[in-house]
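Predict the 3D structure for this chain.
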Amino acid sequence: MIKSIGLSVLLLAVVTVLPACGSSKTEGEGSQVSSVAESAKASDGEGNAAAVSDSSAEDQAQVYPLTVTDELGHEVTIPSKPVRIFAPMMEDSLLVLGVKPVVQWSNGVEPQLYLQDQLGDVPQISFAGGMPSPEAIMALEPDLIILNNQAYAEKGGYEQLSKIAPTYVFENAATDLSSSIQILGELLDKSGEAEEALKEYNDKVASTREKLSTLVEGKKAAIIRFNAKGMFFMNNQYYSGYVMNHELGFEQSTLVKDGAFQVSLEILPELDANYIFLANDGNQGDAYLKELKKSSLWQTVPAVKAGHVYETNSDYWLSGGLIAQGKVIDDVVGFLAP
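Done. Predicted structure below.
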């Protein structure tokens, strides 16, 4: 639970707001200073600028120290407004709140490319071998650590990281994006920005559903993900799979509903999706994608015969966040109703 005056606002937002795509505003370490400087330019003189600064400090003092309980039951106290935030794989959600992290996630080769228009100046840290060492994270001097998945907290991970900075852990932030963004808003004193971002996103979802209604109603969609290990169906619990089913209203393929996960050539004749979307994870699944396209069984699939197969940008189709999901929605509109 959140032990602050802002709890009632957060709970009201959870009940009343479902909502929106990302803000393009970003905030780095110097953003507060720059905003005060801009206020000083607009003011009559030094006294008004000082008043703005004093007012900002007073507002922060009403929020912090902030004590919360994370999704694993840890009590976390944030003493002051966080500035240096380490939140790997939550960069998308930070950006819609107008916040830049101190460093961004990378797979060891590249970061999330769809965010580089806003994160191009943010250093990268490799997760190729898993979570970086505590020493590497400590060197970043974070004042808040946010873990998007409880797996990072296992095997003593939480105990090590919480010694570096206050550490908040989500069970899995991607499975309830609305809730996780509202929690981020509370942690970072950005609840207003969270509400606005969610509202924009929900408005986009509503208008897209209306536009695609005749193309979506009663239709099934399947997403096949390719990586170095093979071909896999994506279910409706996260990322673009969540968008297709919960946001846009496509039904799941019967195969996916029945629990099929790995895709084999032998089950292709059972694939009853009207639309099929292919996501090749960083081109790691090139060999499997090539094998699929050359298969005679693939050519018998109704969606393939109808020309309703679409190759997607895996960079954001396999990522979580309002920016990523907004781009998925834009792609679907472009594919089906250009």
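The two ends are 46 Å apart (CA to CA).
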